UniProtKB/TrEMBL annotation:
SUPFAM superfamilies assigned: Phosphoglycerate mutase-like
UniProt signal peptide: 1-25
Identification of the protein by name: Phosphoglycerate mutase
Keyword terms: Hydrolase, Signal
Keyword match Hydrolase: yes
GO CC terms of this entry: cytosol
Keyword match Signal: yes
């Protein structure tokens, strides 16, 4: 059962939320936000590179840390691998330094000068008063509330959650519930539940696509975070997100989705081919 505990600690500290390598064709998902015909827009979702807090096993949601040498290297490799094969019309990131740094490195190595638009709605889940604590502390706090050991709780959450997206939902909702007691007005922000992040990240994406259609843009880069990206992919197509394995999104992996006429189609998830290509070049 210890493997389940390690899994949840990894989720909170590293944000590893993954998809099927190389992905696959997904069922079309209708977007209620737009009923008008539109040009095709391709969005490349990228997870930030590894950070210093990732390496120390600490929860990293709204808290931030710079990329490690390995985190910088993988972002460089992805940028080199992309090169001029994809011309980004616009680039969006969360307002977290690690996402911005990843985008800057990627664009530099790809030889593309594109303004970076920062949107706080693309942030990672907020873990409230558990921000920057050791991941084990979050697990133990939830488990204690349910009269379970940490191992028992993580095993139960993994089983009942089903796919990794369901697992995220179980954990984030439980953490948000117990963190309510720790919130002090005007002193801290409460931990976010699943629906809060799903709504804010989807609203950000709706605005991104709307602007792309208005400006005639075709290729968009979005640099965000592990848990948020899986939640967002689930909003676009639940059939794809439910297949995401428990191993987690790779740092700087690419997930590709196409939007046309109010519908989304997720084509690939957790694609590391650009990073691999960059290593060889």
């Amino acid at each position: 059962m210890k493997r389940f505990k390690k899994m949840i600690i990894g989720m909170l500290s590293v944000g590893l939320l993954a998809g099927c390598s190389g992905g696959g064709a997904a069922t079309d998902s209708t977007d209620a936000a737009s009923e008008n015909k539109s040009e095709e827009v391709t969005v490349y979702f990228t997870r930030h590179g590894k950070t210093m807090l990732n390496t120390t096993g600490r929860s990293q949601g709204w808290s931030d840390a710079p990329l490690t040498p390995a985190g910088i290297e993988v972002a460089e490799n992805v940028g080199t691998g992309i090169g001029d094969s994809i011309k980004f019309d616009k680039v969006y990131t969360s307002d977290s330094g690690r996402a911005i740094e990843t985008a800057e490195i990627l664009l530099d190595k790809a030889g593309q000068k594109v303004e970076i638009n920062k949107d706080k709605r693309l942030r990672e889940f907020n873990f409230g008063t558990f921000e920057s604590t050791l991941g084990a502390e979050s697990v133990e706090a939830i488990a204690k509330r349910k009269d379970l050991t940490a191992d028992e709780y993580t095993e139960k959450a993994a089983k009942e959650g089903g796919g990794y997206n369901g697992f995220i939902k179980e954990i984030s909702n439980d953490l948000a519930e117990i963190d309510k007691e720790n919130v002090k007005e005007n002193e801290n922000w409460p931990a976010e539940d699943y629906d809060t992040v799903a709504k804010r990240s989807k609203a950000a994406l709706d605005d991104i696509v709307k602007e792309a259609n208005e400006d005639g843009d075709q290729s968009i880069l979005v640099v965000s975070h592990g848990m948020t990206l899986v939640t967002l992919l689930n909003e676009l197509d639940p059939s794809v997100a439910s297949e995401i394995p428990m191993s987690g999104l790779e740092n700087a992996s690419i997930s590709k989705a196409i939007y046309k006429d109010g519908k989304w189609k997720v084509e690939t998830v957790n694609d590391m081919s650009y990073a691999e290509k960059g290593v060889k070049e």
